[in-house]
Amino acid sequence: MNYNDIIEKSIRDIENIEFNDMPSLDLYMDQVTTYLNEKFEITKRYDDDKLLTKTMINNYAKSHLLPPPEKKKYNNEHIITLSLIYFFKNVLSISDVSTLLKPLTDNHFKDDDVSMKDISHLLLDHTHNTENTNSILNEVKNELEYYDNLYDDNDYLKLFGIIFSLNYDVFIKKTIMEKLIDVIKQKNEEVDGKKKSDKKK
Questions:
Q1: How far apart are CA 57 and CA 68, in angstroms?
Q2: Which of 45, 66, 80, 107 lies at a C-alpha separation of 20 to 30 Å from 99?
Q3: Nearest-CA neighbor of 3 among 136, 115, 141, 122?
């Protein structure tokens, strides 16, 4: 398998993760971990990787990152929230993930007007497109062509160069995300401060 095939397969596998097949019934913890681990299994690096465990989910609930279950059962909105946590925590700190998701769960959990399901579908529809795939593939092809010319038969230096370039891109995007999350954090603090001020009156 060549480099382009690896990138293309990775993108295709992630894009094929289906979110329209949510369970119609609420689930207990064991069912949630089984469902989500099967759904995200394709993203595992090693067979024994733990994607989402009971301990993780309990910690998310205790820290108010995840709304608490109702009578020990988790609904579709819990599943969507856990899915978003999984995706974001692979790039951002859990503190940043909490800042990012708090307004979403505060304002749209059990919101009939703009539901979590509507939001998740909108996000996926926007990101799951061929332009996104082609953009990444073209980036890798350009990097490969550059390092092919530079290092001829040294596969390690070619791969190192490609990985460095991709990582640099992620680093820049991660930095931008952190700056934007700081804006959300400031807004959250302003909202919390206003609530405390209103209680004192």
A1: 10
A2: 45
A3: 141
